[in-house]
Amino acid sequence: MTKDKSIFIKNIYYMLSYAFQTLNQENYDDVAVESFDEMYDLLAAILARGIGIQLKQGLYREYINRQEELPVMRGKINMPETIKNRLVRKQLLTCDYDELSENNLLNQIIKTAVMLLLRNAKVKAEYKDDLKKKMLFFSDVDKLEPTSIRWSSIRFQRNNQTYRMLISICQLIIEGMLITTDAGEYRLASFVDEQRMCRLYEKFILEYYSKHFPELSVSASQIPWSVDDGIRTMLPVMQSDIHLQKGNTVLIIDAKYYSHTTQTQYDKHTLHSNNMYQIFTYVKNRDYEFGDEDHKVSGMLLYAKTDEEIQPDNVYQMHGNQITVRTLDLNKPFSDIAKQLNTIAETHFDLPERSKV
Fold first, then answer.
1. Which of 33, 47, 60, 113 could form a disulfide with 173 if both were Cys (CB 3.0 to 4.6 A apart)?
2. For residue 34, what are the contacts with CB-CB under 8 A and spacing of at least 6?
3. What's CA 208's distance to the chain center, in Å?
4. What is the pLDDT of residues 322-340, one digit of tens each?
């Protein structure tokens, strides 16, 4: 996918910075100026810095239930177990009590991700040493079976909001880069898979427009089905990646991250059919919402550019709507990436040219 690995990894950092605004804080400035040759090193550096910041604030603790045999009462006496003790002449009380502990799910996830990085041969020693020092503060925290983590069950509240970005980075490491060896051990794969990269790619573009184009309404909104009788039972949700709007002008962008931007059959290159059907459906249903009002609704498939010789660059006029297919070159300096994104919005919404990012 990449011609210049270091440039691409540098841009991954910028993409993460937009996806997680925490990375824009001055605490991460020196991470931004480092040169990374491996994705692992970038993730290790970000994780080490984030853990360091969290340690200064204090690790998140929550109450966990414990049962222990004690000479004096603590919490509540567990009568059945205490009676058993007496029957065997043990002069101990079995007590159930709650204790504030750092050994909770959030800290366990962090430790599990760090252990994976430490076992990876491609992570540089300097990042491993930094992470090992941080893990001294996690001595009472258990590791998890990586595949057992139920990410959807994680809930953030006021006391652990600072963990949100850290856990997202850990998820990228654990879920996106995890494979199993023949021996049943876990190690990191050579690169993040397409699904996770696509999610990051989408989030980056959405947050980029949200930050740099305040005059636009930027969202990842759902588009209702245009039905004649109002019945939408069992119809699938139409969830757009990026929905840009100014007045009655709309641009719906579907961000796609594939190893191949086109499909090939009998040496003939065509666009991914499902992608075209999807963006066309989004556009037509969104267009229907405006009714007789004067409006403009367009769609765009924005692929991450690959090294393939043939890259899509097409504009189609379909039933009164414009559908564009473009590529975004992530192997360019970030200023060039920003210029590509700016041009898309400036051209579509007739906006003045942005200053350099």
1. 113
2. 45
3. 15
4. 999 999 988 888 999 999 9
Question: How many residues make up the chain in this entry?
Answer: 357
**What is the phi-psi region of residue 228: left when phi exceeds 0, alpha when psi lies from -120 to 50, beta otherwise?**
alpha
Which residues, at least 6 apart from 14, have a Cβ–Cβ distance to it below 8 Å?
204, 334, 337
pTM of the model: 0.75
CB 203 within 8 A of CB 172: no
215 and 160, same structural domain?
no
**Does some domain include residue 355?**
no
Domain boundary pick from 101, 118, 152: 101
Q: Answer whether 13's CB lies under 8 Å from 33's CB.
A: no
The pLDDT value given to residue 262 = 65
Q: What's the CA gap between 18 and 188, in Å, rounded?
A: 25
- Domain holding 247, by residue range, is 195-349
Strand order in the sheet with 76-77: 62-70, 93-101, 76-77
Residue 357 placed within a domain: no
**pLDDT (0 to 100) of residue 191:** 45
Helix (H) or strand (E) holding 192: none
Q: Which two tokens stand for residue 48?
A: 């080490």
